[in-house]
Amino acid sequence: MDKPKAVFYRGAAFRVDPEVYEPAEDTFLLADNLGECLGKRVLELGTGCGLIAILAAKSGAQVVATDVNQAALKCARTNASAHGVTDCIDFRLGSLFEPVTEERFDLVIFNPPYLPTESKEALGSPIDLAWEAGPKGRAVIDPFLGRLPNHLTNGGRALFVQSSLSNVDKTLQKLREHGFNVNIARKKLSFEELFLLRVYRPS
């Protein structure tokens, strides 16, 4: 059986169990751009090992962290305890906004699955769902964009990543249709380009 790994971000260690998505360039891009969280109510969708949620909690936020993978939530709770922020994070099981039906947040963070995957290739296990995103890579991002306005406060913001493999222009169009302002940063990888989308809802 595979053993847990230790992943480090700016000198801080995070345990990653075998059934949990291992933080990579997309996670670290979010972490590097987290911004001001003090006193904010933050939602992280797909928390994985909890790295982003823990960073937000350490900077003074009250966080709700969700995942569809029960093993991920267990791992994230272990990391939150090790970092002393258990009381600042509410971990919930569920897909997208299902665990926060009527709630709104000052900041919504998401590292969505964005790898285009044909149905015959999809494995569908809890860890595979961290990257499998349907034939066009948009099976998760489109429902996320459709529901985001219902869960973001006036003046709130969202921070998420997307790949050049999954039609970023369509994402930008949908965000602007909702009246959001968008700022983009890019990071070139070997076979794709990552886009960091900073989304702002006018007050």
Provide an overview of this structure.
By secondary structure, the protein is α/β, with parallel strands linked by helices. It has a single domain (5-200), classed as Rossmann fold. It is 23% helix and 30% strand. It contains five helices and nine strands, in the order E-E-H-E-H-E-H-E-E-H-E-H-E-E. The strands form two sheets. The chain has a seven-stranded mixed sheet, sandwiched between helices. It has a two-stranded antiparallel ribbon with strand order 1-2. Strand 3, helix 2 (51-58) and strand 4 form a beta-alpha-beta unit. The longest helix is centred in the middle third of the chain and has 13 residues, at 70-82. The radius of gyration is 16 Å and the shape is globular. The mean pLDDT is 90.
Write a brief structural summary.
This protein has helices spanning 25-32, 51-58, 70-82, 141-147, 168-177; strands spanning 5-9, 12-16, 41-45, 62-67, 89-93, 105-110, 152-163, 181-188, 193-200. The chain is α/β, with parallel strands linked by helices.
Keywords for this entry:
203 residues, alpha/beta, Rossmann fold, seven-stranded mixed beta sheet, two-stranded antiparallel sheet, 23% helix, globular
Q: Oligomeric status of the shown chains?
A: single chain
Q: How would the global form be characterised?
A: globular
Structural class: alpha/beta
Give the rounded overall mean pLDDT: 90
Reading off the top of the CATH hierarchy, the class is best stated as Alpha Beta
- Strand residue content: 25-35%
Question: What level of helicity do the residues show?
Answer: 10-25%
- Low-pLDDT residue spans: none
Number of domains: 1
Q: How many β-strands, per DSSP?
A: 9
Name the CATH superfamily assignment. Vaccinia Virus protein VP39
State the separation between the terminal residues, measured CA to CA: 51 Å
Please trace the helix and strand order, writing H or E for each element. EEHEHEHEEHEHEE
Please name the CATH architecture. 3-Layer(aba) Sandwich
> How large, in whole angstroms, is the Cα Rg?
16 Å
Tell me the major beta sheet.
7 strands, mixed
DSSP helical segment count? 5
Q: Could you name the CATH topology?
A: Rossmann fold
Strand order of the largest sheet: 5-4-3-6-7-9-8
